Amino acid sequence: MEAPISLNLKNLQFSRKQRATHDWDSIIKHQAKLRNDNAILTTYTHMESLSILPNTVTLPLILKACGNLYAIETGKKIHNDVMNTGYCFEALDLFVQMLMNGMRCDLVTILSAIQAIAEYRCVKLGMQVHQLAIKCDFNRDLYIINALINMYSQIGCMEFAHVLFRSVSTGDVALWNSMVSAYTERGAIDEAVALLRAMKLKGTRPDERTVVIVLSLCVDLANGLRNGRSLHAHVVKCGMENNACIRNALLNLFGELNCVEDALKIFDETKNPDVLSWNTLILTLARNELRGKAWDLFMQMSELHFMPNSHTIVSILAACTDESFLKLGRFIHGYVIKHGIKIDPPLHTALTEMYMNCIDKETAETWDVIQCWLRWKVQNSTSNKRDFDARRWFIR
Predict the structure, then answer these.
(1) DSSP letters along 20-79, please?
(2) What is the C-alpha separation between 243 and 225, in angstroms, rounded?
(3) Best exposed site among 139, 193, 304, 336 by fewest CB in 10 Å?
(4) How many angstroms separate the CA atoms of 71 and 63, rounded?
(5) Which terms in the Gene Ontology molecular function aspect does this entry carry (predicted)?
(6) What 3-state class would DSSP assign to 105?
(7) 232-238 long-range Cβ contacts below 8 angstroms, 24+ apart
């Protein structure tokens, strides 16, 4: 039974985001001392609402609470929040410190370590944590197996991932999906197709993610269009046609294969298209020289209050292929600046190519010289570890 908590969280001033970090440390350490795992997660929820991430003091205690309560999804979310800040090495360093301090490794802790290693791409450390999972008797847990398969595939050790997959007798569809996806992402199309056939023979029922993976495979197959259309019919038959991920995968397939009519039909049948749906169709129309339709769709998207992102702009810029589109290209560039759309590397490249395609030769050569000079400044700043200067030159 959990010890009663002596701190009343409701009476604390959680609305103050600038509360000192050591205050949060003190609260969570006190709750851990009382072994009140539920209270620890409640405190973490308050921290999250104030955009405060756990530090090296509180994170082990929060993850331990997740493990004690078997709150796997919460633990994974906390880990992802930390990883998204770019602290991959720090997360691994924290894991090593936990081991050195003799802390017990629970399921959530090992899951977090495996996912961090996948980002860090260290084979030796990955194998050591795999052995630790076996020692802690977590090697039969499907969460751990799935994470290990993903880790080995991201590191590039497909043989290890395959051996691990074969050692599992379960027909869990998530494991099959992970393995097929791993082969697909590495361009091993034949192996992915063979695994899908084996999945069918084993009687494992595919789910929505399986369909999305197979649709992505069809792009690289010689008979991909025929298979894609057959799979589309299967999706309708199984009542999965309203799944947003499947619809976007179909849109992407028909767009990649330049089947405009099929793509338009899918889009028209979509009740609530998301930004990804709009982006895919705009790019499909632009690539097939239907520039007017692409522009109309972009304007329609704005009129319906869908906020375009950098991918949308890259898609519509694909329609600006010669100097007759210079005015339109400049309008789009101005739209990006006006609406504060982040100019990430793909958008930066698309804007550069637009000006190269649309401006006269003399201006294009001048633009090219400017871009080469800026790239040199970025490279020089980065090599001298002047990250601020590098970012400043890049966004110019």
Answers:
(1) -HHHHHHHHHHHHHTT-HHHHHHHHHHHHHTT----TTTHHHHHHHHHHTT-HHHHHHHH
(2) 20
(3) 304
(4) 9
(5) RNA binding
(6) coil
(7) 235/211
**What are the tokens at 257?**
């294969």
Q: Can you say how many angstroms the Cα of residue 8 is from the centroid of all Cα atoms in its chain? A: 38
- Alpha-carbon Rg of the chain, whole angstroms? 25
CA distance 262 to 250: 9
* Helix/strand number for the chain, H first, E second: 22, 0
Which stretches within 202-259 are classed as H helix?
208-218, 224-237, 244-256
Closest CA to 317 of 342, 361, 347: 347
Taken in order 298, 300, 303, 305, the sign of the CA dihedral is negative
Alpha-carbon separation of residue 201 from 79, 206, 218, 239 (angstroms): 36, 12, 20, 23
The CA distances from residue 336 to 135, 161, 299, 317, in Å, are 54, 43, 14, 11
Rounded to whole angstroms, the Cα distance separating 326 from 381 reads 32
The pLDDT tens digits of the residues spanning 250-291 come to: 999 999 998 999 999 999 988 889 999 999 999 999 989 898
- Residue whose pair of structure tokens reads 């395959």 in the numeric block: 162
Helix (H) / strand (E) containing 392: helix 387-394
The secondary structure of 311-325 as a DSSP string is: HHHHHHHTT--SGGG
Burial 315-329 (b: 16+ CB within 10 A, else e): bbbbbbbeeebbebb
Nearest residue to 167 via CA among 159, 182, 124: 159
Q: What is the pLDDT of residues 142-159, one digit of tens each?
A: 888 999 999 999 888 899
* Residue ranges for the chain with pLDDT beneath 50: 1-20, 382-396
